[in-house]
Amino acid sequence: MDRFRKAIRNKHWATLQVPGYIRREFLTETVRKNDFSLRIICAIIFPIELYNIARVLLWSQSGLGTRNNRIYFSMYCLLILIGAVWLALRRPMRQASVEGQWIFQYAVTCLLLLWHIGLNAYDLYRDSGAGTAVLTTALLGLALLIQAPPRYSAALYGIGYLLFLAAMVPLLPAGDQLNLTITFSVSLAVSLAHAHHTAVMLKQQKQIVEINAKLQELVQQDPLTGLLNKTTVECRVEQLLSGPERPGGEGGVTLFLMDLDRFKEINDHYGHPCGDHVLVEMADALRSTFADGAGVGRIGGDEFAVLYDRPLTESQVMALSENLSRQLKAIRWQGRPLDIRCSVGACVCPKGRCHYQQLYEETDRMLYRAKETGRDRCCLGQLECAKNSR
């Protein structure tokens, strides 16, 4: 039973919190909504309160000669001042953090609620039959227009309710007290529902973005090895070849093509599960050897490609090829060494703009040269492209 009660309490507490992973997005959306809502509130406040000020100054026989008129006049001016200060600071506050902007909006909201509690309390002090329309309208308006994290809404309406009890209960009949209590409760419920709806919407948006990113990743990947697929490798090469030269250098790329030697014999002798194992191990060896490359992909059955976004020297190409060869020779299947080897073709395009097909064909030619001259070796070529070849 205690565990059940604790679970219920935790569930209720969770409704008063915005999950941390969407907190910034929630505050950003809150600031955007509240900025629009406060402008609407100001557009309502200014003409109404200016009318009330004119009514006191121009249409009242006593003008500011009575204490009552001076109090109302001061209250009207104070509300206009709150709105004017918010409008004056609204643009400068955009330079602040989203947390700072939200705190400023929340402070203005608190002042608006306090003002309406004060005005309604004074109305009742003067006339116990004045009713609570002023405060009721303000509560429902703020609940509908102003968004806040749930616990801040609870604090706003909770403190407001305590002030109402202190200021108005002695002046109100029991029925009006109950009605206003219900209004506070409904306003809090509306505010909490508003915040909950926004949080759910942001969670769903974040999930959609994550799902789309995952789908995009899956579309670009080879399903067996997790490397880039052929289409994605081609796109990346094209982007580098057609893109602007990088600052501080002349640009250029290096493309590797690798083909496992006698891979069919491995499949025939050990079976396709072993062949798949070799391909996965090959992928891991490529990731390790070419960790600083711009892309590693599988472009055929046992053919792989590695792209660098810069021209490599001959010594760098050979060192990478030897490192890959060492790792492949360590591959084992069911405890037995397989003596895996591969041929490597590499082509450096040091500057200028080339077509992908030109670069691929030259690299493929280097790969076949490596196979024709004994396999398990690397052949390097260089492709010179004119800068206006495109």
Describe this structure as you would to a colleague.
- The protein is α+β, with helices and mostly antiparallel strands.
- Helices cover 65% and strands 9% of the residues.
- It is built from twelve helices and seven strands.
- It has a five-stranded mixed beta sheet with strand order 2-3-1-6-7, with helices on both faces.
- Strand 4 (332-333) and strand 5 form a beta hairpin.
- Helix 2 runs parallel beside helix 4.
- The protein is elongated.
- 29% of the residues are buried.
Q: What's the quick description here?
A:
By secondary structure, the chain is an alpha+beta fold. The protein contains twelve helices and seven strands.
What keyword list fits this structure?
65% helix, 5-stranded mixed beta sheet, alpha+beta, 390 residues, 12 helices, two-stranded antiparallel sheet
Shape: elongated
Q: Unreliable stretches, pLDDT < 50, 5 or more residues?
A: none
The number of strands is 7
Main β sheet profile: 5 strands, mixed
Write the layout of secondary structure elements.
Layout lengths: L1 H13 L8 H35 L9 H24 L7 H29 L6 H13 L4 H19 L5 H47 L9 H13 L10 E8 L2 H8 L1 H18 L5 E4 L4 E6 L5 H16 L2 E2 L2 E2 L4 E8 L6 H17 L5 E5 L8
Parallel strand pairs: 6-7
Antiparallel strand pairs: 1-3, 1-6, 2-3, 4-5
